[in-house]
Amino acid sequence: MMDQAGRCYTLRAQAKLRRQRLTPLVGDYVRFTLGEGEENSWLTAILPRRNSLVRPAVANIDYLVITLSAGFPKADLLLADRLLLLCRQAGISPLVAVNKAEEDPQGALALAQQYRGGAAGTFVLSAATGQGVEALGEALGGTVHAFGGQSGVGKSTLINRLYGLELSTGALSEKIDRGKHTTRHTQLIQVPGGGKVLDTPGFSLLEMKTMDPAELAGLYPEFQPYGDKCRFQPCAHYKEPGCAVKEAVEAGLVSGERHGRYCELYEEMRERWRERYD
């Protein structure tokens, strides 16, 4: 545990926290008592969180930078979409950063274009060359933010480039086309300008809690300008006739790729909702 002055402490959780099955997350504010001599220091309380995520396991952040790769590993866009939805549910502002633009400049632009309107901001950048890094740094200045996404997309490398750090970074596994898990635990790092950054381990699997599929469309901000214009209300923007969101997709006003993955997630959630009592 680290205090506001940057001092680190090793704490043991009091029995009441273990009985309540409360586990601190990186980013939590807590109360603790310091032991003297060889006595243990104790974690006594976890203060209320303004937000939290299970994966990456972080709390009390302003932004989650969902990091994608324009090269290898191939971007898992369903994973990115799930992260966006979880951010919306938690009240966290999501940013999408498409890294490794030097490997496929046009592909990087196309990826970012899909998320304009769906994220609080999109960035095309290259940790290798420095392209776009300054703009991302300006957006994150003075905030508490975490980088999340697949392994191997360059999260730690981006943080190093942004803040002049020397976090360990890993190479890509050529055999399985995945990044190695160089970052093995989440760490909170104070950065210039008064902000804090959380470097998190990569992951490839992410499951959302079962929810009423009718609520899913409300988590897509790019649908909102058109939802009230649909012929039927409420409209799931799935297979209904006279859907203004689908018309916006056909007109190029809403990303067709994003809407197509929305339909996949809608079908998945509808099936899970039907089976929730089985």
User: Low-confidence stretches at least 5 residues in length (pLDDT < 50)?
Assistant: 171-181
Global outline? globular
Percent in strands: 15-25%
Kindly report the spatial arrangement of strands forming the biggest sheet.
8-7-6-9-13-12
Keyword list:
278 residues; alpha/beta; six-stranded mixed sheet; three-stranded mixed sheet; 8 helices; 13 strands; globular
Write up this protein:
The protein has 278 residues and is an alpha/beta fold. 28% of the residues lie in helices and 18% in strands. It has helices at residues 15-19, 77-90, 105-115, 133-140, 155-163, 224-227, 244-250, 256-274; strands spanning 12-13, 30-33, 42-46, 52-53, 58-59, 63-69, 93-99, 121-124, 144-149, 172-173, 178-179, 187-190, 196-199. The strands form four sheets. Strands 8-7-6-9-13-12 form a six-stranded mixed beta sheet, sandwiched between helices. Helix 3 links the parallel strand 7 (93-99) and strand 8 (121-124). The longest helix has 19 residues, at 256-274.
Secondary structure layout plus pairing:
Blueprint (H helix, E strand, L loop, with lengths): L11 E2 L1 H5 L10 E4 L8 E5 L5 E2 L4 E2 L3 E7 L7 H14 L2 E7 L5 H11 L5 E4 L8 H8 L3 E6 L5 H9 L8 E2 L4 E2 L7 E4 L5 E4 L24 H4 L16 H7 L5 H19 L4
Parallel strand pairs: 1-3, 6-7, 6-9, 7-8, 9-13
Antiparallel strand pairs: 2-3, 4-5, 10-11, 12-13
